[in-house]
Amino acid sequence: AEEAIRRTEKLSVIGQLAAGVAHEIRNPLTTLRGFVQLSQKQGSLSEPFIEIMLSELDRINLIVGEFLVLAKPQAGKPQPTNLDNLLQDMIALLYSQARLLNVSFVTHFDKDLPLLDCDANQMKQVFINIIKNALEAMQDISGTITIELRHDSEASVVVIRVIDQGRGIAADELPRLGEPFFTSKPSGNGLGLMVSQRIIANHKGVMNISSKLGEGTCVEIRLPLR
Ligand code: ADP
Ligand code: MG
Prior knowledge:
Blueprint: H1 2-42, H2 47-71, E1 79-81, H3 83-100, E2 103-109, E3 116-118, H4 120-137, E4 143-152, E5 157-164, H5 192-202, E6 206-212, E7 216-224
Parallel strand pairs: 2-4
Antiparallel strand pairs: 1-3, 4-5, 5-7, 6-7
The protein binds adenosine-5'-diphosphate and magnesium ion.
C-alpha cells in the first residue's frame, strides 16, 4: 500500500510538472510564432529578432533537457568517478562567467579522495546548477565562491560545499527552494534545484541549503561512498 501511495504521489508530481513545463514552453513558442509570422510578411528578419529567436529556442531546449533528466526513472549506470576532476572541470567551464562578474573561485579539496560510484553526467548537472546559482547570486557583488570537497572517512561520505557571498535567501523563501518553477530571477526557470535534489536523492545523498539574506548561501551535499 505504501508503494502504491508513493507511486501516486510521484505521478501527481510529474503531472504537475508536465503542466508547468507546457506552460513554460508556450511562452517562448508564442514569441517564436510571432517572429515567423513577421518574417513571412516582411520576407526577412533583422539580426536582433533572430537573436531573440535563438535565445527562445535555447530556453525551450534547456527546459526540455532538465525535464528529461527528471523523467528518467533512475540514475544511469554508476561508474567510479573522480569528483576532484569532475568539480575542477565544472569550475573551468564557469570560469569566464565568473571573471565577467568579478568573482573568484577558491577551492579546498581533500587529497586522496576515494572514487564515488555515481552517474558522472548527472553529477555534473548538479554542480553546474549549484555553482551557476552561486554566480547569479553574486551579480553586482564581487567576491569569492568557495568550493569544498571533503572526505569524512568515519561516516563514509563525501561532502561538497558551495559557499557564496551573494545576496542570500530570505528565511520565508528557504522552504520553497526546490519547488518546481520557484524562481526569483526574471529569466530563471526554477528547475535547477529540483533536478539537483532529485539526482542527489537518486544517489542516496542529501542536500542542505543554509543562507542569510545579504550575507550569502551555503549548499551542502553529502553522498555516501557505498
Ligand atoms: P533558477 O536558478 O532558474 O531561479 P533554481 O532552482 O536553480 O532556479 O533556484 C531557485 C531559486 O532559489 C532561485 O531563483 C533563487 O531565488 C534561489 N537560490 C538558489 N541558489 C541560490 C543562491 N546560491 N543564492 C541565492 N539564492 C539562491
Ligand atoms: Mg538555477
